[in-house]
Design a protein that fits this description.
54% helix, 4 domains, Helicase, Ruva Protein, domain 3, single chain
Length: 551
């Protein structure tokens, strides 16, 4: 078995081959051109981004007899020996197995001797953060003033574990994570040379799974090639690296948008049966909602690394969402991804978060609340252009039990019936007419004690008395104000009992009809004497949030 994995076969052999680290390679090439090579280099960054590879290229650029401006020839014996790791003048060790003070003392002794067949004796210490404090202290003097033929190249993934005294004696280069686009381009180039075909979505999925590491991307590609052969499809990639189909993500988001608990439970069951780590699922959901946010922006589909069908699907689905809702869901999913690593029952926590998102109401700004805009209206019509159509608002503002115009108008227009005997009184004690006559007095009492409720009652009118159940219609008020009135109906019923001497059950309903003329005059009356804009704002806030002023 002489097969060589892709990460070794396609390992960069010159600075031009190193991808995604232009700030490092350009600096090193210029240093060689100007003959300003330091005695020590510290290479730091995440895994698989080219630290050890760059260290070997530096060694070749220093020792190659045919080098030109820091570009090794990769053809001479010295370059071949360094590439194969058998050059006697380039000593490459790892800090994990050579971490003690004795090993560092041996290095100090070896670097004193002149190189055998190369200009420099170079020591490469990989994962240098694994050295002990005593070993670091023993290295300090030699690292700062090595022999003229000695060079040190240190590499680490945990720079914060390296003493600052070591870092200050080296030139530090921070390697960045490689972008998905750069990894995808490199994978496509390698597959072309290997005569293997793969669709763009497969390459994008592997690049995203690699999380900025080119070595991880090539290792995943090796697995996929072993599974799928020379023709790679996204289904093959999903099977190997454990990707959830995009349909599951859309079902998850649609269940939240439609408040469909049955669909959400079925989606959770599918996720649970896949056996994938929930951290990966949460990460995929975050990416899904990120795509929805990008797709909701004009021209955002061009920023999605997906095939055309999926781009179109994301842009169409994004039109159904309110942008504020997408941001709130993304925030919850970010917290979920972080907390899954710490909770004792991650599955239950994942499912409860899904149910929490199901109960989340649509977003509405304070200005919309003060202006009386309904939250449901915002949710169903996120596009301002669509809200300009006259018909949808009329449908959305229908109350849960819409009053029939044929029934309401006689009740409002007709005079109170004459009370001749007890049979004209629905509850045997009081009639609707008597309630209407004294209604303004009741509103005044409620307003003095509970201003927010009184404000809503000022826009109301009793319309029906059935037994001990009093139905009140509210005019020219937001729907949630009626909900606030019903939630606090016990308080108002106490005022009714004190005012009328009768215990009645109150039920408030929104009315789409215009307020009667007398009612309109009463509503507008305070505004004629109120010239203070600040008082108007305070009154409106108290009305919307059912608040009180504490003296």
């Amino acid at each position: 078995m002489s097969y060589q994995v892709l990460s070794l076969k396609w390992r960069p052999q010159s600075f031009d081959d190193v991808i995604g680290q232009d700030h490092v390679t350009k600096t090193l090439i210029n240093a060689f051109k100007k003959d300003r090579v330091a005695q020590g280099y510290m290479l730091t960054g995440p895994r698989g981004v080219g630290k050890t590879t760059t260290a070997r290229i530096i060694a070749k650029a220093l020792n190659c007899l045919e080098t030109k401006n820091g570009i090794p020839c990769n053809a001479c014996n010295i370059c071949q020996e360094i590439t194969d790791g058998r050059n006697l003048d380039v000593l490459e060790i790892d800090g994990a197995s050579n971490r003690g003070i004795e090993e560092i003392r041996n290095l100090r002794e070896q670097i004193k001797y002149a190189p055998m067949n190369a200009p420099y004796k170079i020591i490469i210490i990989d994962e240098v953060h694994m050295l002990t404090n005593q070993a670091f202290n023993a290295l300090l003097r030699t690292l700062e003033e090595p022999p003229s033929h000695g060079k040190f190249i240190l590499a680490t993934t945990d720079i914060h574990k390296v003493p600052s005294t070591i870092i200050s004696r080296c030139q530090r280069f921070d390697f960045n994570r490689i972008t998905e686009a750069t990894i995808g381009e490199q994978l496509a180039s390698i597959l072309k040379e290997e005569k293997i075909t793969a669709d763009d979505e497969s390459i994008s999925a592997i690049a995203r799974k690699a999380d900025g590491s080119m070595r991880d991307a090539l290792s995943l590609m090796d697995q996929v090639i072993a599974f799928a052969g020379e023709d790679i499809k996204i289904e093959d990639v999903a099977s190997v690296i454990g990707l959830i189909p995009v349909d599951v993500y859309f079902d998850y988001s649609n269940a939240i948008h439609e408040k469909d608990s049955t669909k959400m439970v079925s989606v959770l069951q599918v996720i649970r049966t896949t056996g994938l780590p929930l951290e990966d699922v949460a990460q995929g959901l975050n990416q899904h909602f990120r795509n929805l946010i990008v797709g909701s922006v004009d021209g955002g589909e061009n920023l999605l690394d997906l095939n055309e069908d999926h781009k179109k699907r994301y842009t169409e689905n994004a039109e159904l969402w309110n942008g504020k809702d997408l941001l709130r869901v993304t925030k919850e999913l970010n917290e979920l991804e972080y907390s899954l690593k710490r909770v004792t029952q991650p599955v239950i926590h994942f499912e409860m978060t899904a149910m929490k998102l199901m109960e989340m109401d649509t977003s509405v700004s304070i200005s919309d609340l003060l202006s009386g805009v309904e939250p449901t209206e915002i949710k169903k019509n996120p596009n301002p252009v669509k809200q300009a159509e006259p018909s949808p608002p009329a449908v959305q503002y229908e109350p849960p039990i819409p009053p029939s115009p044929q029934i309401e108008k006689p009740q409002v227009a007709s005079p109170p019936p004459a009370i001749d005997n007890e049979k004209d009184k629905p509850n045997g004690k009081i009639t609707l007419g008597e309630i209407e006559e004294k209604w303004s007095g009741l509103v005044g009492k409620v307003t003095k004690s509970r201003p927010s409720m009184g404000t809503v009652l000022e826009h109301s009118k009793p319309v029906q008395l059935n037994g001990n159940k009093l139905t009140v219609h509210v005019f020219d008020m937001p729907k949630f104000s009626v909900g606030s009135l019903n939630r606090n109906n016990q308080v108002i019923e106490k005022f009714i009992e004190d005012h009328y001497g009768v215990l009645l059950k109150l039920k408030a309903e929104i009315s789409m009809e215009k307020a009667p003329e007398k009612q309109v005059e009463k509503i507008n009356e305070p505004e004629k004497h109120d010239n203070n804009d600040g008082d108007k704002v305070i009154s409106r806030v108290l009305e919307v949030f059912d608040g009180e002023i504490l003296r």
